[in-house]
Each structure stands twice: as C-alpha cells, then as structure tokens.
Amino acid sequence: MGEIGHKFARLESLRAAGFPVPDFFCLPASEFDRALGDPRPPSAPVADWCASAASELAKAVPDGYLAAALLAAFDERIGAAGTAAVRACVVPGGGGGGEDSGDDPFAGMSDSFLYVRREGLLEAVARCWASAFKPEAVRYRLLKGVDPAGARVAVGVQRMVPGTRSFVAFTRDPRDGTRHHVIAAAHGIGEGVVQERADVDHFFVDPAGRVAAELVDKRRMVGPPAGGEAGPRAADVPGALREPPVLTDAEARRVADLAARVEEHFGRPQDIEGAITPDGAVHLVQARPLAPAVRDAGPRVHFGSHNITESFPGVSGALTYSQARMFYELAFTDLYRRMGVPARRLRANAHRLPRMVGHLDGRVHYRLDDWQELHGQLPVFDLVRDGWEEAMGIAGGPRASRRGPRSRVAAALPAVAWHAAGHRRATAEFLRWWDGLMAEVHDPAARPLAGRSPEELIALYRRMWAEVSVRWGVTLANGLYGLLAMRAGTALLRRWAGAGPELLVGLLCGGRENRSLAAARAAIALAERAAAIPDLKAALLAEPGDGTEEEHLAAVWDGIAAGRYGSPIAASARAYLRRYGDRAMHDLKLGEPTPRQRPWMVAGTIAPFVRRGATVAGSRTDEARAAADARRRLRAACPNPARRAVLHGLLSLLRWFVRTREDTRFCRTQLFGLSREVLWRLGADLAATGALDDPADVLDLTAEEVIGAFDGTLPGADLRGLARVRRAERARHRDVPPPPALFSVPAGRPVAAVLPHARPAGEPARADGDVLHGLGSSGGTVRGRAKVVLDPGIPPAGCAGRILLARETDPGWLSLMIAASGLVVERGTLLSHTAVTGRLLGVPTAVAVGGAVDRIPDGAWIELDGRAGTVRVLDRRAPH
Asked: Coiled-coil ranges per the record (predicted)?
C-alpha cells in the first residue's frame, strides 16, 4: 500500500476477485522518490519549494532502464497500438491516509491523463509526478493539516476501453446516506460525468431493484480524441441518442449490482466509475470509499406527509390537529384490539398512539417510526407492507422496514381468517350505529344543535367519540383486508392475463353505489332539477356582476330556500343539505366551513353540473361502459373460463372493500362535520361570554381546551391571549415553505428547534424528457390546458375543460374535479380519493405523478393518458 497507494491496491484486489477491471500496471512511489531527489530543507518555505519541485518533476521524464521497462510493460499490457489512462495516486505516509483512503477519499487531488499513446507515456508519468505539488493540491493538504512536501506519488497505467457510455455509481445516496444506488450516466467517457462536461441522466435504484430516473436532453458529451489530437474532446451527442435514457432499467440494475458487489467486497459503501462498450459489456475502471453523508450524531425521528395531506392539506389550526390526533389514537387502538394484539402490547406502546401524527410548522405529519412500530404488532401486516410503504412514500427508502419471519405470518393467518369472517357483519353493525346517530342528530323533527345548551352539546360530543373508540377500528380493518385483496387481484391479473393495474381500474367499476358516489349523484340530480327551471338555471350560470362569487351564490341559494323557484326544488335542496351538508372541500379540517354552516355552497356545488348538462343517467352509463370495456379486455387477455371465474369472484370481493371504504370515508366526513358543529357552537358561546374575542378564535384552541373551558378543567384562563398567539403563528406558517414530504430530525431534542434543519429523504420523480410518469387510475386519453391548483378555493369555472394538476386532493375538491376534463396529482394510490373519484366521474386520471406541479406550467398544453399514467407536455407556452 505504501508503494502503489489505495487506488491501485483496490483495483488489483478487484481484478484478483474476478471483477471486470481493464488490465493495468503500476510504477511504485520509490521511483517518484528517485525523481524528486533531496527532500525539502526545514528552512525552505513550503509553497515556494512545492512550486519548484513540481516544475522539476515535470521535466523528469523517465529514461534509461526505467523508460525501457515502462514501454515494455505498455506493449505487454496495453498493446503497442493501444491507448492508456495514466493516473497518479498519492500513497499513504507514515501516519496512514493517502488518496482514496477510507478517511479521506479525495486527499491526493492528483492528475489523470486519458488516451495516452505509447509515445506519450513517459511524459504523462512525469506530469503525474508533478501533480503531487500543484497549487490546489498544496492548498488542500495544508487545509487538512498535512505536510504537502511529504507527498509521494505512485502512477498507474490502465488500458483504455472503447466505451461509448460511462457512469459514476454510488452504493448509497450521497445526499443522505440512504440505501439507494445513485448512478450518473452519460454518453462518451467518464471524464464528462466527473468533470460535469456532459449532459447526465441520473438513475435511482432502490433495494428492491426498482429504477427511477431523472432524464435530461443530452446534447454534450466527451469522447476520444479526433485525428492528431491528444486527450479527450468535447463532442455533440448524436440526435438519435438525445432523448432516450443513457441506460435502460436493466442496465441500471446491472450497474447497481456491480456497485453492490464492490461494496460487499470491501465492506463499506463505495463510489465506482465505469464504462460500457458497444457490445454492452460493463468495465470497472475505479473504486473508492464513499465519503460518509453528513449526519447528525445519534438516532433520528422520521416524519412524512405523503398520505395525510389528502385529508389535511396545507396549514391546520390547533382545533383541527387536536381532533385529528384524537381520531388516529382512538381508531387505531380499536383496530389493534380487533386484530388480536394482546392488551399488554397495547399498554407497552400506549405512548406511541397519541403521537402518530405531529403538528410541525402548522402542518399535520405522520411520525413514521411510531406507525411502523404500531403496525408491526400485526403479523399479517407483512403481507401488505409493500403497499403501505408505497402509500406512505417510504418504499425502498431510509424508513423501509424489515419483515419478520414468514413463520410469524403463517402462525397469524388462522386468527386473521377468524376476524375476517366476521368483518361483513361488523361493518353492517357499524353502519347501522352510525346511521342511527346521524338520524338522531339531523332528524327534522329533532331539536337543532343551535338550540341546545353547551352541556347538551358536550354530552353529545363525548358520547359520539366514546363510541368511536370501540367501533371505528372496523373501518381500518376494511382497509387492511382490502390491501390483501388488492395484492391477490393484482398478482393474478399479472399472472393469468398479463395485465397491470390499468386493467384493474376498469374492473373495479360497477356494483352497488357507494355513499361517496351517491353524494355526487345526488348533486347531479339536484342540478338536473335546477336546470329544468329556466330562471334558476340562468341564475346559476350568470356572472357575479358587481359582487363577489360568494355573494352571488348566496343570493341564488336564498332564492331557492325561500321558494322563489318553487317548493319542490326548495324541498330537494333542503334534503340534500340535510344528508350531504358535511361534504365539502377540506371537510376534515375544522377550520373550513361546509354547506352545513354556509348553505349557499350547495349552489356552488351544482352550478358546474348545470353548466355541463350532467345527468345521473349519463353518469351511470359512463360507469357501465367502463366496466363493460374492462370485462371485454379481460376475456381477451384471459381466455380460460375457470381462471376468469376466480378473478371475477376476487374482483367482486375487492369491489365490496372499495365500496365499504368509500362508505366509511363518508361517515368520517360526517364525524368531523358533527364535531365541527359542536365546537363552533361552543366557540360562539365562549365569544358571547368574553372568553374569546371572536367565535372564529376557537380554531386556534384544541378540542380539550374548548371543552375544558366549560368543565373547569382548563389550566389557566386566558383563552383570548392563547388564541391570539396561535393565530399569529398560523399566519406565519402560511408564509413559509412546507417541510419536505419525508424528513428526519435528531431524536431527543425539541422538534420545533431542529425542524428548520430537517433532512429531506426520498426519490426524485421519474421523467422522460417532457413525459412524466405516474400510476394510471382511470382510463382514457385527453388533451387540454393544464390548470395548476395550489389553492382549491378557486371557482370551479376556472377548471372547466382543463386538466387539473394538484399535489393532492380531498373529497372537497369534487366541484373542481367535476369541471375538469382530467385529473393529475403528485401523490396517491389506486385506492386514493383522486383515483376513486376519477373512475366515478369517468375522466382520465393519473396519481403519484411526482413533480407534476413544479414541472408543468399553468396553461401548458398537455396530454394525459389515464390508463398508462403518463402526462406528456405538448407545449409549455400558456395562451395569451
């Protein structure tokens, strides 16, 4: 090691182990010592001596016996007509270290010369020696506290392979140390990648072998010398190679596998360089230890928002967060109990349940460590772990967790089967209970909530949430069983029909109407009645005039409610409000009003349907057509009737799970809707007594504080001051960028103090030039102008005929979705709200299209393929 250095010792070790290393030979550092001559006198200034030594070494071209030996080795190893890469490597000194060492991978900063011919070999060796004392190397070694005059250089001469593509690969993500292989690849030679002289594609290969890529338009490359030139030259990438990725997915996996084997060989993360020849062979030309990613010492806590932003997007106040936290704690405690988790284990993890969701910079996040520990209590969770981790955005990432032994799953299956056998009955009981409670609360003959005393409201609130704590787990169990059915259905479709998720989307259509779909069709039915009344139709479609959109809709609603357009439409509107008044945009956020509090919002819901001429019959026809088309494609892809019968049985079960999911999601909307009514009413009472400045200040108190103010259990009495402070914080949170979707902070420290330094994690979106890829969720192809929606409070007319692009949606986006001709969101799964709604509306939909909002300008002309899950940008220019 002290004579040839880490760089060449590693190459020799790899070559001896059978890795595809091009042939090479080394000139030991002892020859450098002879060329250098006398060491630096103690009295000589370091910088001056190094500059003089570099100049002299550059002239010390090997001659005599050494020159003859070098040329003979070149002829034998490289070939007299061949070319070589001649590289310097600073060897370890008395205290260790040296270039490409584990402690300082880049300590030498020495030179390399490529495409060196036989006649240029001796001069290249001298120039390598001289690079030991070039100015930047001297400065670097002084910075490291190492005597630059003590540098000794070995020289390696390696055969150049005729590579047409090159790469640098890391066995860990160099940004955060996660177990992703990161590959930078370009056309031409590695000089272009290393020195950023070529346009580079990046590939990200996770531990499961999945490949994501960030692709660029490749115009620049570095290639071999032309004519009588010496050394590499800049060149243009041939036109046919500019758009396609430099590596196929299979090649990216081959490179990642090579890097992984190098890491295993040396026992630590590596950074490798290589070339690919026209025959597809991969050659390994360098390997060095990967500099460790900068990480805080000690354990870390991981947070994520990939999934929860569908329910709680943007900034949420204290009232919303406290209700969400209570919901997760109670509902999942009931799930674990129902799934047979022993009481002692629940007690041991009791501290994790209240912190399943955090409130960071005003935004709701999952605390992923606790979710994994809690879900890990369920042995059957291993069967759906992949789907869950994908939905949470951590598949293959730093928080991807290890599975338990298969025997654990097998042992748990009888108990799971026992619980699953009673699931339909438990679901029916849950829905009967919930419908009974809603009938009690919203019965026209019952006393309205506005007329009840604070004591009665609090008693209703407590009774409802006490029942939630022992009933709501059935809705979460449905999600678990649904994931199992989805996994089985997807696997059988792939095996028997050679089909992917795009066929499954259509096969999920049909069957009995769920409550979310019933809400949409009830709005369509109300719009049909309104459209049949000319004056009302004209009012709904009229421009706001001098007033605001809200004032216009309020006036239209007042006319409907007052019977101006007839008593039948007034009765229908009241019935719709009574049944579906809790469904609105962001309806789980208690700070957002719903039609229950702002009845005129009903007019805003039906106006887009009136404008489109939508009908319930048309909605049902579209759904039936999609289902029939999917069944026809299944018959063609799977001609075996026995297998189709199995698939149809499984799909029928899966449709039931999806319908139940949407039914219980609607119940959740009503749960938060009733909580909103009670807590807003209590807020009004607090403001009336002077405890708050304004009823809206209740949004910045927790549910426990609101009720504690009436119970006498509230520590401190200054609710006005507390609400004022939190309101100001909420305003500040709206003005700062949100944390990354995945990030971690040091454990054991106040999260608020370290959140600004949170470390992002995760994969970049896959994009092929102007094509973005996601998950196809509702078939069909549509072209149109993009409508990027960051604030969903815009009028639905703004989305009319446009393809809606958003980071995520929730059920309250329905009016915007109805108006849009296509849906594209950055997050989601086949069972997410956007995917389900797209299928119900019959519009092309793609979810999990990472980076769509940032990559596609508002107004750009795009093409959405809802079956393939692709979004193609046709023209980035917005219309003038």
From this structure: none
Q: CA 767 to CA 784: how far, in whole Å?
A: 20
Given 143, 160, 177, the domain boundary residue is 160
DSSP 327: H
Q: Are 597 and 539 in contact (CB under 8 A)?
A: no
Locate the DSSP E strands across 37-164.
Answer: 84-90, 112-116, 153-159
CA angle 411, 416, 422 (to 5 degrees): 155
Tokens 């989601």 label which residue? 828
| Strand duo 822-825 + 845-847: pairing | parallel
Instruction: Tell me if residue 760 falls in helix, strand or coil.
Output: strand
- For 547, counting Cβ atoms within 10 Å of its Cβ (0-12 exposed, 13-18 middle, 19+ buried), the class is exposed
Do residue 604 and residue 555 come from a single domain?
A: yes
Alpha carbons 512 and 843: distance in angstroms, whole number: 20
Could you give the residue ranges of the DSSP H alpha helices within 131-212?
135-143, 190-194
Angle 185-186-189 (CA atoms, 0-180°, nearest 5)? 110
- Render pLDDT for 715-748 as a digit per residue (tens, 0 to 9): 887 899 999 999 999 988 887 667 767 777 777 7
* Cα of 6 vs its chain's centroid, Å: 39
C-beta of residue 457 within 8 angstroms of C-beta of residue 680:
no
- Band (pLDDT 50/70/90 cuts) for residue 302 is confident
Q: Identify which of 27, 97, 101 has the alpha carbon closest to the alpha carbon of residue 61.
A: 27
- The CATH number linked to 806 is 3.50.30.10
* Domain count within the chain: 6
Host domain of residue 388: 300-409
Residues 441 and 549 in one domain: yes
Q: At what angle do helices 64-77 and 121-130 cross, to 10 degrees?
A: 110
Residues 661, 451: Cα–Cα separation, whole Å: 34
Same domain, 775 and 645: no
Q: What is the pLDDT of residues 371-429, one digit of tens each?
A: 989 998 887 787 778 777 777 777 654 454 555 566 666 776 777 777 788 999 999 99
Instruction: Give a yes or no: residue 754 inside a domain.
Output: no
Question: Do both 499 and 636 map to the same domain?
Answer: yes
Contact residues for 314 (Cβ-Cβ < 8 A; gap 6+): 363, 734
Q: What is the 3-state secondary structure (H, E, C) of 538-593?
A: HHHHCCCCCCCHHHHHHHHHHHHHCCCCCHHHHHHHHHHHHHHCCCCCCCCCCCCC
Tokens of 190: 């590695």
Question: In this structure, are residues 738 and 364 in contact, taking their beta carbons and an 8 Å threshold?
Answer: no
Residues 521 and 644 in one domain: yes
Tokens of 430: 């849950």
Q: For 812, which DSSP code?
A: G
Tens of pLDDT, residues 665-682: 999 999 999 999 999 999
Residue 760 — very low, low, confident or very high, per pLDDT cuts 50/70/90?
very low
Query: What is the Cα–Cα distance from 377 to 332, expressed in whole angstroms?
Result: 12
Lowest average pLDDT, out of 513-522, 608-617, 736-745, 815-824, goes to 736-745
- Closest by CA to 185, choosing from 206, 168, 160, is 168
| Phi, psi (rounded to 5 degrees) for 471 | -125, -30
Q: Closest by alpha carbon to 165, among 191, 132, 144, 147?
A: 191
Q: Do residue 676 and residue 705 come from a single domain?
A: no
Q: Which among 379, 409, 439 is the end of a domain?
A: 409
Same domain, 468 and 564: yes
Would the pLDDT of 763 be above 60?
Answer: no
